[in-house]
Amino acid sequence: MTIVIGLWLNTAEEVAHTIIPIKTIQYSLADKVEFEPNLDHYTIVTGDYEPYVYTENGETKGFEYEIMVKILEEMEVDYEVQIMSWSRGVYALNSGSAFGIFPYFKTAEREEQYFFSDSLIDATNRKLYFYYYQKEDAPFELNSDEDLKQYKVGAIYGYYYTQIYDELGLEYDLSIDELECFRKLKEGRIQTVPIDPVVASALINRYFSEDMNAFKRSEFSFSEPSYGDHLMINKADPRAESFVVRFNQAFHKLKSSGQLDSYYDKN
Fold this sequence. Notes:
Layout: E1 2-7, H1 12-18, E2 41-46, E3 54-56, E4 59-61, H2 63-75, E5 78-84, H3 86-95, E6 100-104, H4 108-111, E7 114-116, E8 129-133, H5 145-148, E9 153-156, H6 161-168, E10 172-175, H7 178-187, E11 193-195, H8 197-207, E12 215-221, E13 230-234, H9 240-256, H10 261-264
Parallel strand pairs: 1-5, 2-5, 2-6, 9-10
Antiparallel strand pairs: 3-4, 6-13, 7-13, 8-11, 8-12
Helix pairs in contact: 2-9
């Protein structure tokens, strides 16, 4: 196993100019292969999404990262985990330099191009709430999609809700991750951004403890169905389909035996 940390953490502007357009690696359908442990090397990429996956003092942590490692070791595959921005991760996946990326939402649009494992967690009740930065106790009117139009909203490259923004006709500022979004909130460059409350709490405690009370959560969230947190693999890779089957088998074996309970207790 190899873990590579801190690759390609470009600014949002650099990302926008370096990864579009991309060329997706092409395989013939005749190239489809069955999964065999240790027959190949698998590069899995992920990004900082504390507490699910994150780096601290050069070490990769997070309960979803630990679950992923446990499953890959159960499969007895030769693998490495690389940490990079989400947009770079998708580029690596589509160009063939990475085999899979996690944790990723499964949507109908993505299923046209990718295979997905079963969700690593039960995300049935998870919502993304809109956060804002405000030191004084003043009203912040945000109760509907229409209210969003009066604010400069933030978003992260590749996140599903940018499609919702587009449908609403919103103008929005793009960032590479949640941390950059929170820095922009504090600097006044954006006024609100949707973030998982678990992730928001972790970021505030780690990076903004002196401003903890200034970061506030509105009661408005996107009422979207749960997409879960999955391993996503390009269908163009001939190893993909059989790998997902074996991955799910190993995952449910570990889960049913209770070997993953300690990781879920950390959530």
